[in-house]
Amino acid sequence: MYYGPELFKAAGSSADQAFLSQVVLGATLIVATLIASSLVDKLGRRKLLARRGVATSRCLAAVGVLYRTHASPLLVLVFVVLFLIGFGSSTGVVTWVIISEISRPGFAARPWA
User: Fold this and answer.
1) Ordered structural domains, the chain, with CATH
2) DSSP letter string over 40-60?
3) Residue range 48-85, pLDDT digits in tens
4) How far apart, in whole angstroms, are the C-alpha atoms of residue 86 and residue 84?
């Protein structure tokens, strides 16, 4: 999230808190992606995309409401973390798995190298 610190400053965080929030978000996304990449075959692609898609939509709606009502920056961080857990464990992983599976092996090597 390139504009992450600016978003958290707009939510009422100090500059130090905004950058610390960005570190928390990066670590969360890495952990969620690693866990989901190991579980994508066990849990199923459709379930991950559908359930996590609904969860990410709800989290973004909550972040919008929290910005509108000028709620606590910590609460905004919690919902952004929940969004990233949902994104990192669904769209962030499953999209790349599906792309690699739908193309022919000989065809995919040249354009994606």
Assistant:
1) 4-109 (1.20.1250.20)
2) HHHH-HHHHHHHHHHHHHHHH
3) 787 888 889 999 999 999 989 988 889 999 999 999 99
4) 5
